[in-house]
Design brief:
Length: about 150
């Protein structure tokens, strides 16, 4: 039996080795990213459990755990994205209205549980933002208005 002669040019083999090397490096990077996201998932689950326990202790109905994990993640999501800036405060104020649109929209006395839920999110997910937001909330007129 004889060994066949190599007919593939050196340049093609080099190109193939480079492509395989790039694929291996990309898979290694992907492995590191997946490993870190698994760590974030555990942190998100722990924080979701803490948030749900806080809601239940306050007597509020708790959303499903998987929804809390999906929406708030491990960092609080959009809720913790600078809650003390003017736009986020304006959005918060817009939720404290009668539900009408246009000229019929009016501010209302907010239920304390609504404000408490927002504060609980900040307490669990971004406690460094809580003191400033607490000062903001202390100025809002609230009462036990919902049954």
């Amino acid at each position: 039996m004889s060994t066949p002669d190599e007919v593939q040019p050196q340049r093609e083999r080099t190109t193939m080795y480079v492509v395989i090397g790039i694929v291996v490096v990309a898979l290694m990077v992907l492995g590191v990213v997946v490993f870190r996201s698994a760590k974030d998932n555990q942190q998100a689950e722990d924080k979701a459990d803490q948030f749900i326990a806080g809601l239940q202790a306050a007597g509020a109905p708790a959303p499903p755990r998987d929804e809390v994990i999906r929406v708030l993640g491990s960092d609080g999501g959009a809720t913790c994205e600078d809650p003390n800036n003017a736009l986020n405060r304006a959005i918060f104020y817009s939720m404290l209205t009668n539900g009408a649109a246009g000229p019929g929209i009016r501010p209302v006395v907010a239920d304390r549980r609504f404000v408490a839920g927002q504060l609980l999110i900040l307490k669990v997910y971004c406690p460094e933002e809580l003191p400033d937001f607490q000062n903001f909330v202390d100025k809002i007129k609230s009462a036990d208005v919902a049954g």
